[in-house]
Amino acid sequence: MSLIYAQDFIAALSDIVGAQYVTADPIAAFPYRYDASIFGGTAAAVVVRPGSTEEVSQILARANTAKVPVVIRGGGASIYGQPRGVPEKNVLLDLTRMNRVIRINHDSMTVTAQCGIIMGKLQSACKKAGFYIFSPFAPLHIVSLGGWMSGAAGSAGLWPDIVSITVVLADGTVVKTGGGPGTNIHQPVNFNRNLGGPDFTGLFIGDGGSFGVKTEATVRITKFPPVLRATIFEFDTLEKTLELVKRHVERVNPHPFDPVMVFGPGAMKHFMPDFGEITNFTVQGMMQGHTAAEMDVKRDIFNALADELGGTRTPVLDAMAEAMAAAGGAESEMTMDWLALFNALGLTAWLPFTLPREGFCQIYYQLLDWRTKRLEEAAKKGFVCHGTWEFFTPSDASTLIGEMDAFFQDTEDPAVVDFARNMMQDFQIYAHQLGSIDVYNQGLMADLNARYWSPGFRTLFQSIKASLDPNNILNPGLWTPLNNC
Amino acid sequence: MKNLSAIKRYIYNCRKCGACVGKVTGRVPYVCPVREATPGFEHFSARGKIIIAQGVLEGSIKPSQTLADAAYSCTLCGNCMLQCGAIDQETGKPLVDTTQIIEALRADLLETYPDLIDHSYKKVLTLTRAYDNPWGVPRATKGKWAAALGLKDAQKERAPVLLFAGCTVASNLSLTDRAQKAASILKHAGVDFAVLGRDEPCCGSVQKRIGEFGLARSMMEKNISLFNATGCDTIVTLCAGCYSMLNNDYQADAAHAKLRPRVLHFVEFLEKLIRQQNLSFCRAKSLTIAYHDPCHLGRHMGVYDPPREILRNLPGVKLVEQAATRENTLCCGAGGGMRLFADGACAVDIGLRAIESARHAGAEALATACPFCELNLNAAAQRLDSLLPVYDIIDLVADSLKIPK
Asked: B45: which chain A residues are within 8 Å (Cβ-Cβ)?
């Protein structure tokens, strides 16, 4: 048992959540030192698995009084690691027990769920009811709703659809954001993101869990789109590819059911290993909707745009598009568990970037050159790089989000892990210096993002943090060194 | 930690993404049955156990009772491997073989820290050494089921088929009639078969799952000689655990001779007999049945269709599928020695979910093809006060045949 905290503190936590959901056993806490990243998880003195907002509120009130650091964990799916907190002293809240779907509101078309729910489970529950949460480009089967909102929702998908969040502040105060019971005590239903006051929902999105613990959320849902069409074009230049993206986005802005994805030559080699040398960019347009006739028209429009810009289709690409379309539809789980493909490629150096469309081309090539040089360095050291991956997509009308990852074969060699870790970190420093602003507000990336804040932004952040969490107990040190907050 | 060292590639292939912890789809209500039936801390999940195995291998954690409990609280059902989905493109095999990691962790604990291992596992190993089976039943008692049936003795008369009852069927009074019914079915179909009776050995599966690799290997070597000496072409097992052991582990682990006969599960053999029209059914019993895929028959060995074909052929039987079925089937809870863990309470808790799943599918009865599943699912059904009976397919087939007593 932990010697850090007195037995009465552990007993108090046990009284709140039940003794079986509290552990100070170092072996039980050990797996939380790891997560999906190569940057690591959280060293914790105590791990607690609360089951409700009320329990979280009581835990935080107690921790705040005792000035105990509290670190929050969802699915453990971050690629940049977890908050470090105060190693060995942390009380870690493992929120994955809070995994209930509370209500699917057919009238208002929203779903309310506890924030520890894994997105795939939420998606599955919505699908059973005939609905769908728009959240592309995330491996839904590993990411929790709370983790997604705290860490990555500032990019594609879910972000504009979050209607309300129930947040427990550091002193245990429970807040419901959004237009609904939080802003009108006579309205029981959360139905709008921003009515009756400021957009406090937005305040807690992308905070990395620093401003409060998210325990429940209400999210907009749409009718499940059972029809999927896909079409794939090759382009010989990035400029033409981007022009197609631009024209498509101008039409759909981008509608949730009209994703368009651009793959670089490296990525296509994974899809089509026998295709020979691939030097072109490939654009995949997908049309999801409710009737075949409607989707066929959309596909024809996309095809016409691509044709105008000189895109070419081949029988192989057409076959691939057909296969993609067949994989969608009413039976599709839409869980995006392509992560297994990545996991099979070896140790990933994730190299994501987020840029405005303006000036994208030049920076894209600079980033690509950087990766090439670093991979040459790896080769000189004798490290086998199993493959590369280039991909980007418009996440809204003006933003392009993508990755140019590399995969290392020898996953057992600590030197390879170190190399990949440094590569990820150095890539982000370089990308930030070129203007990229990463979507992930987790672990190492929160710190990296914060290095490039303007003084005004930093002051605002620190003021809010100091106001909401004066004892700095929540994910301390996540954004800035502990003594700066 | 020689056993963990030997399979460390599986540990380091794991990206710790958590698919084995939280994946849920319309067909996968949960991945890890143990995590579902316990307080759910990470060390109860596959990812947590892999991290612990890595910690032990690297020397960053010291084994303790909690660590041993983590290692032994696993049914080895393999759902985590399946849902992980990371596959070696060349071999088609899982890149993260969780069952091998857990077994290796157990083996190293058993060798290096035997004091941490629960006495119930040690008892099984002691009984095996004394009685050559994990149940501690004397050979004479274990062979009783065959004594009065006048069956060929495989060591004296050659027959193309060896019916292998397995220790669990042959040692448990509530299950021994299963072996007798299986023999009757084979006779009815005119199959030339033999049995080993009181000399039937334990296959070594339970011992290997517990982590006693040395004992399991010596049993394996001895058994291979015995099986090969019978001159049979086919071994037909009644137990999914024996089937997986004889097919997988005997091929992978045997150091010397290889097992010559092919190994089939009874459902595979039976389905073939039905296809060849060697069996015809006449007694109709109107029953809506769901089939529970035993993990060691389904997920580990890919045998899904033969049991279903048999059930479809039984007059009056309507087969319904559960939401989680075939490779996604919910583990019954009995595998991996879980009936020995925490006095079996966790195993039964896991079984409750499988019973609920069958009831939810509208089944009036649940059929399976493994004595471990049958025992544990029956225990779960009793705990639920459920009227859902659990049958072995052999029972249903025997009931549908006109077999003279």
From this structure: 31
The fold of A101-223 is: 3.30.465
Same fold, A227-327 and A339-444: yes
Q: Tell whether B403 is within 8 A of chain A (Cβ).
A: no
Query: Domain limits of chain A?
Result: 7-97, 101-223, 227-327, 339-444, 445-484
Burial of B276 (0-12, 13-18, 19+ CB in 10 A): exposed
- pLDDT value of residue B284: 76
**Residue carrying structure tokens 């030559």:** A265
Which residue segments constitute the domains of chain B, with CATH numbers given?
2-117 (no CATH), 132-272 (3.40.50), 280-400 (3.40.50.10700)
Query: Which residues of chain B register pLDDT less than 50?
Result: none
Among 2.60.40, 3.40.50, 1.10.45, 3.40.1000, name the CATH number for the domain at A445-484.
1.10.45
* Most A-contacting residue of B11, B14, B21, B24 (CB-CB within 10 A), to test interface: B24
What pLDDT score was predicted for residue B173? 83
For chain A, the three-class secondary structure string (H helix, E strand, C coil) is CCCCCCHHHHHHHHHHHCHHHEECCHHHHHHHHCCCCCCCCCCEEEEECCCCHHHHHHHHHHHHHHCCCEEEECCCCCCCCCCCCCCCCEEEEEHHHCCCEEEEECCCCEEEEECCCEHHHHHHHHHHCCEECCCCCCCCCCCEHHHHHHHCCCCCCCHHHEEEEEEECCCCCEEECCECCCCCCCCCCCCECCCCCCCHHHHHCCCCCCCCEEEEEEEECEECCCEEEEEEEEECCHHHHHHHHHHHHHHHCCCCCCCEEEECHHHHHHHCCCCCCCCCEEEEEEEEECCHHHHHHHHHHHHHHHHHCCCECCHHHHHHHHHHHHHCCCCCCCCCCCHHHHHCCCEEECCEEEEECCCHHHHHHHHHHHHHHHHHHHHHCCCCEEEEEEEEEECCCCEEEEEEEEEECCCCCHHHHHHHHHHHHHHHHHHHHCCCCCCCCCHHHHHHHHHCCCHHHHHHHHHHHHHHCCCCCECCCCCCCHHHC
What's the pTM value of the predicted model, to 2 decimals? 0.95
Report pLDDT for A483.
47
**Residues A2-26 pLDDT 10s:** 557 888 999 999 999 999 999 999 9
CATH of A339-444, one of 3.40.630, 3.40.50, 3.30.70, 3.30.1300: 3.30.70
**Dihedral in degrees, nearest 10, Cα atoms A131, A134, A139, A142:** -60
**Fold for domain A227-327?**
Alpha-Beta Plaits (3.30.70)
Q: In the CATH hierarchy, which fold is given to the domain comprising A7-97?
A: 3.30.43
Mean pLDDT of A350-371: 95
Q: How far is B362 from chain A (nearest CA, A)?
A: 18
Rounded to an integer, the average pLDDT of A142-153 is 88
pLDDT of res. A88: 82
Of all residues in chain B, the one with the smallest CA distance to A413 is B12
Half-sphere exposure of B123 (CA within 13 A, CB side): 9
A139 CB within 8 Å of a chain B CB: yes
- Using the predicted structure, report yes or no on whether residue A135 has a pLDDT greater than 90: no
Residue A323: pLDDT band with limits 50, 70, 90: confident
Per-residue pLDDT of A469-480, as tens digits, reads 999 999 998 987
Q: Would you call A340 an interface residue with chain B, using a CB distance cutoff of 8 Å?
A: yes
pLDDT of residue A334: 62
Residues of B in contact with A118 (CB under 8 A): 22-24
- pLDDT: which is higher, B393 or A135: B393
More confident residue, A481 or A379: A379
**A55 close to B (CB below 8 A):** no
